[in-house]
Amino acid sequence: FYLGESIANLPFLPADFMNWIIPFVPGDLITFGINTMVDIIIALGLGREDVVAKLFESLMASAIFVGILGIGGTFVGRALSLKLSAKLPNLSIGLVIGVLIAIPLAIISNDQLTGDNPFYDGPSLSIRTLWILGVIALWGMITQIILQTANQTAEATSHNEDTQKQSTEIENISEARSQKVTAINRRKFLVQVGGTSAVLTIIGAGLGELLRENETIVAADQVDFSFLNFPNANARVIPAPGTRPEYTPIDNHYRIDINSANPPSIDGEAWRLTLKGLIENPTTYSLQQLQEDFTPLNQYVTISCISNRIGGSLIGTTGWTGVSMQDILREVRPLPEATHIKITSADGFWEYVDLDLVREDQRIMLCYAWNEELLRVKHGFPLRIYIPDRYGMKQPKWITELEFVDSWGRGYWVERGWSAEAIVQTTSVIDTVAVEAAYEQNGQTLIPIGGIAYAGARGISKVEVRIDEGEWQTAELRQPLSPLTWVIWRYDWPMQSGEHTFEVRCYDGEGTLQIEETRPNKPNGATGIHSFSTTI
């Protein structure tokens, strides 16, 4: 399935089946799964949380899928034990059972891609269906061949033993033991075959997902951003060596969504944004119309996932281009009874935004470009929304419809127990204690320490660093890319040899100290003091 997906964009069936299952899974169980994955990723240092999480999702999807095939294999084995193969054409048992399994899976797979995505861009449903039927039917026939071979081997062994039977009781006992061993060997063979198939399937899916996610990841220092003319290019404060890039390369920007594998495939030419509901002027817009008929709004933006841990990697900053939602409101003219906008996405995601909030904040935008190029598919092509001060769970991607309604409703993640408001928590992180960049000044060795601080659109007014539970020391703040981005901070610490613990905290633009109490990410986003220990 991975080869078919990679070469011809054909279905990766385990992921489609996983996507179909997820809406039926209790929200607390999903949260437990997410937290467990992140714990493992962090504890083992496996890499970027979003990339490895997608790998884990593919492994789980493949394991579930192997279980389904295992059940199918049981039916094949049962049919063979009833000697049905002698009464039917060669390999017909595996073929029939494979097709019976494939039909509902094909229906599920096709619905996952097209049920919420009227602008699906990929192989036709008939080709997809034939592909699924063919692969699963082939699996059924191969399974039958393997089981028949195992049975024939066992029967031949048993026949040879029968010809050597002796009449004595000792020999009869020996024969019984031999037959028992034969049965055990046959079962062992089948278990080994099934287990090997399962392992190969899961490893194949995992490697495929890893290749898919890692193939475009690049080092930040390999990307030329000079054409963007950053507004703080001449800022006085220089980031400490080892601080994360102030501007996140798009290929390295985190991706979190409800899709187990590939995101929705949308035909940009056919795509239309539908605006309907309680408005005077229901209409649709093409991507070209959004680009040409409205004044572009350009903003540097930091966005974070609500499931991000303190010090986690599910946060990034890039340049957004799009249309102010206020411009859209002037065109569609909401009716007085309209209070909210329901946003629907091609992947089945949905969320609500308060209409009064849109009227009050010109920065809320429908975004069609990052880094002055159209959105990448995995980041929401052709359209996503930006809402200042909110976590990513409130900002749908792959948008297809805006419906103006007279009441609020619970969005996808809100239904699963996450915050209804999802307002960004103030947070600060230590990225580096740059021992290798130590320098001398006035007879003192100084070590640069650096990181980020973020409070959404509220901004950052102060960052403080503490070493070994001493006094809090004020760090320097670099001018941010915009009022909507994180702030890079730096503190040059007078070096002392030994083992040390470094902590950081910050204040938002209104002077409010971040929450120092450690709280989990669910339901409102993680809080707490980030610390870093090292020996110098």
In words, what does this structure look like?
With 536 residues, this protein is of the alpha+beta class. It folds into three domains: 2-214, no CATH class; 253-416, Sulfite Oxidase, Chain A, domain 2, CATH 3.90.420; 427-535, Immunoglobulin-like. The protein is built from ten helices and 19 strands. The chain has helices spanning 2-8, 13-21, 27-44, 49-81, 92-114, 125-163, 169-214, 287-292, 325-332, 355-360, and strands spanning 273-277, 283-285, 297-304, 315-324, 340-345, 350-354, 365-370, 373-374, 384-386, 399-405, 427-433, 439-441, 444-454, 460-467, 473-474, 476-477, 487-494, 499-508, 530-535. The strands form four sheets. Strands 2-1-10-5-6 form a five-stranded mixed beta sheet. Strands 3, 4, 7, 8 and 9 form a five-stranded antiparallel beta sheet that branches. Strands 11, 12, 13, 16 and 17 form a five-stranded antiparallel beta sheet that branches. Helix 4 (49-81) packs antiparallel against helix 5. It is globular.
What's the structural blueprint in terms of helices and strands?
Blueprint: H1 2-8, H2 13-21, H3 27-44, H4 49-81, H5 92-114, H6 125-163, H7 169-214, E1 273-277, E2 283-285, H8 287-292, E3 297-304, E4 315-324, H9 325-332, E5 340-345, E6 350-354, H10 355-360, E7 365-370, E8 373-374, E9 384-386, E10 399-405, E11 427-433, E12 439-441, E13 444-454, E14 460-467, E15 473-474, E16 476-477, E17 487-494, E18 499-508, E19 530-535
Parallel strand pairs: 1-10
Antiparallel strand pairs: 1-2, 3-4, 4-7, 5-6, 5-10, 7-8, 7-9, 11-13, 12-13, 13-17, 14-15, 14-18, 16-17, 18-19
Helix pairs in contact: 2-4, 2-5, 3-4, 4-5, 4-6, 4-7, 5-6, 6-7
